[in-house]
Amino acid sequence: MACRRQRFSRWLLTLSAVSALLGLLIAPRLLARAAAAETLVTTDYLVSHTSSEPFYAQYKLDPQVVLHVREVVLAGRERTVPKDGKVLLLLHGATVPGSVAFDLDHEQCSLMRYLARAGWDTFALDFEGYGLSTRPLVLDAPAAFPESRAPIHSDVAVHNVERVVEFIRTLRGVTQVSLLGWSLGASREAPLYTLRHPEKVAKLVLFAPGYKNLGFLEGARARADALETKDKVSYTRPTVEGWYQFGSKEELLVPGAFEAFRVAMLASDPKAGELGGVYRAPAGRMVDQFRANPQFDAAKITVPTLVIRGALDTFGTREDSQLLTAELGSEVKQYVDIPNASHFIQYEKVNVQFFKAVKDFLDAKVEKKP
């Protein structure tokens, strides 16, 4: 009996060892498969484009430019999105290029990565004059071109959107994309493109838009003439106090987010070092926003639309955003306030609440009326 017990014990030990070995062999494979399934793929495209910026014709320069477009998607997901059309193009605001606005590489501050993990094929555009897209020479030396006006007005930027939407439609084999605009992108280019091409827009998200009242920028229209003919370029030194002006507070921010933003913004402008830690943006789009009231005809927007803002935002105010929502011609429309958030929600501690609200709206099925 003792021998049998010893043999049985040795058999149990052997079985345990084999099981442990199999576990060591199989578990990494399972983990590797799980990791592969969650792998995000980031691709930066430089899309050729013939610019409609008047500066090129005025000074007899070549209008051929490139537009920087970043894509973030789950590995393999790009092959299946044509079936459900989960494709999103994000349009940035007045000074921050798309890759920094929507894909900051810090903690969980990337809206693109959040939506990509949720199954969306996400694209962010840098308008002409921003980030890795072509900058017209007037940005380098405004005084050298005294007869020029501020570059990259809204019509030029909307042509950028038209070019990139066609690029995405061809690349991914879809007929429609959803659009998300932030700040100036929500005030101008996202709705203006939608008005021109409603058949190509599945859903529209307006994040922190200005519509009829420009929040704390009262009197800004008086600056439009100087921006148009004299300044032509906006120069910004990244400071956290600048964020506070838009409703943010130190206690709202993800720790380290502003510093990551500052580094990314200065890296986005090749002249930032030469300018002493200042980054540039073309002023044309700002001139248009300062002069327009309203920014667009909301009654003619008919696609499903979400208006979303931070409750503390001093630019996209509650009154103005609710007025915009009421005047939208869309049968499907929604208004969302995110508590304890400012104009810069994506960099604040409640950002996941904002990300989820956007995802839920984009994911919601829209029943077609007979």
Describe the structure.
The protein has 370 residues and is of the alpha/beta class. It folds into 2 domains: 1-37; 40-363, Rossmann fold (3-Layer(aba) Sandwich). 39% of the residues lie in helices and 18% in strands. The chain contains 13 helices and 10 strands. The protein has helices at residues 2-37, 54-58, 81-84, 98-102, 111-117, 154-172, 184-196, 224-231, 240-244, 257-268, 284-291, 318-327, 351-363, and strands spanning 40-50, 64-74, 87-91, 121-125, 177-182, 201-207, 233-236, 279-282, 305-310, 333-338. An 8-stranded mixed sheet has the order 1-2-4-3-5-6-9-10, with helices on both faces. Strands 7-8 form a two-stranded antiparallel ribbon. Helix 7 (184-196) links the parallel strand 5 (177-182) and strand 6. Helix 8 (224-231) packs antiparallel against helix 11. The chain is globular. The N and C termini lie far apart (81 Å). Residues 1-37 have low confidence and may be disordered.
Secondary structure layout plus pairing:
Elements: H1 2-37, E1 40-50, H2 54-58, E2 64-74, H3 81-84, E3 87-91, H4 98-102, H5 111-117, E4 121-125, H6 154-172, E5 177-182, H7 184-196, E6 201-207, H8 224-231, E7 233-236, H9 240-244, H10 257-268, E8 279-282, H11 284-291, E9 305-310, H12 318-327, E10 333-338, H13 351-363
Parallel strand pairs: 3-4, 3-5, 5-6, 6-9, 9-10
Antiparallel strand pairs: 1-2, 2-4, 7-8
